[in-house]
Design goal:
378 residues, 14 strands, six-stranded mixed beta sheet, 37% helix, Rossmann fold, 2 domains
């Protein structure tokens, strides 16, 4: 995935009272980076004070460092307006001037998570997130949110600025020609901004998006909720089946299946518990059909679900042909995936074993990881 080829290219930054993070990162992406990543838009997450500093230093007519950078290096139009400066708010919706309380940290985690979720929801976008600015917790939450929602085309970085220009409030990017600024020290010695070096340190991160529930990819889920689901997905697999309620516990997640999907899963679970081999539809005989019907009748939880039940009667008459075998496996996977996400669902659904022509399906779980017992929840 080449981020620079996406039509919507987004630079996402966090900042406190250091708005130059935006121009430093933009310079590094467009001038020092290889390949070049020229954003089509920029978004900044910051405090109320930080937003005012960004407005005055980056977007004003003078000094207007964002506009000057574009002009100095001939960069194309990049959408970065006051609407793209997102002010962090507390739990009550009030703009934050600083982040000092535990509740403030929890609130900004949700704001940052929601913004990353929103920007990564567009399949035509590539997001480059910089964790260089703001308080450490802001950078941490941005990096963590990108790990939760990031896709192959998304990137994470930290900008590095050479001394004595690092943390200098007068420095915004290396000038193309001599430009005098003054140092932070008591001597206020003059410096030439064209001598500065700005580089990006690429930060590899683990992408967990594919393992999230579909509901967590939509707006509204908090940072803590998404993290809890990611933790559940990383737990060692274990499967508990509750026949009376058609509920299953997959790791720490409980869900309810339709009776026939529950029966299909229970059928494969019993085979795994007793050490039976993988199952190909061509090798299903009367004994295998009866084993499935036993699970289906139990899952229907109906005293009248005997041989006269339409679903039972149809299977006894037709057996389990290829079409039914493939349809039931596919529908079980979809029911699991809606709650668990596809990668996690694959740990609990029957999977093809081997590459032989008649390779069958089986659960890839050890007997010690499977049990039949009541399950609470869902």
């Amino acid at each position: 995935m080449n981020p620079e080829r996406y039509p919507r290219r987004i630079l996402l930054c966090v900042a406190g009272l250091s708005p130059q993070i935006v121009t430093e990162t933009l310079y590094a992406l467009t001038r020092a980076g290889e390949p070049r990543f020229v954003p089509t838009e920029i978004h900044l997450l910051t405090t109320a004070k930080g937003a005012e500093w960004a407005r005055l230093t980056l977007l004003s007519d003078e000094p207007g460092w964002f506009h000057r950078l574009r002009q100095d290096y001939g960069l194309p139009d990049i959408r970065f307006t006051l609407d793209n400066i997102h002010i962090l708010r507390d739990a009550d919706g009030r703009p934050l001037d600083d982040i000092r309380k535990l509740t403030d940290n929890e609130a900004i985690a949700d704001v940052i998570t929601n913004k990353v979720r929103e920007l990564t929801a567009d399949s035509d976008s590539a997001v480059h997130a910089s964790i260089a600015g703001g308080r450490k917790t802001m950078g941490f939450y941005l990096g963590y949110a990108l790990s939760l929602f990031g896709r192959p085309q998304d990137r994470l970085s930290h900008v590095l600025v050479s001394s004595p220009f690092e943390s200098n409030p007068n420095f915004f990017y290396p000038a193309p020609v001599e430009r005098v600024i003054f140092s932070n020290g008591p001597d206020q010695r003059p410096l030439d901004a064209s001598d500065a070096e700005v580089m990006l340190a690429d930060i590899p991160f683990v992408r967990l998006r594919d393992g999230l529930q579909e509901v967590l990819l939509r707006e509204g889920a908090s940072f803590s909720e998404v993290v809890r689901q990611a933790q559940r997905n990383l737990a060692a697999p274990s499967l508990t089946l509750d026949t009376a309620a058609c509920r299953v516990r997959c790791g720490e997640t409980v869900l309810r299946l339709t009776p026939i999907s529950f029966a299909w899963l229970a059928w494969f679970a019993r085979r795994a518990l007793t050490g039976l081999p993988s199952l190909h539809w061509k090798r299903i005989g009367p004994a295998e059909v009866e084993a499935f019907l036993t699970e289906h009748k139990a899952a229907l939880n109906d005293p009248l679900a005997d041989d006269d039940h339409p679903a039972i009667r149809a299977r006894r008459k037709e057996g389990i042909p290829k079409e039914f075998f493939e349809e039931r496996t596919s529908k079980l996977k979809r029911e699991l995936s809606r709650v668990l996400g596809e990668p996690t669902a694959a740990r609990y659904a029957p999977q093809r074993q081997g590459s032989q022509r008649l390779a069958g399906l089986a659960l890839e779980l050890e007997p010690r990881q499977i049990r039949f017992a009541p399950v609470e929840g869902a």
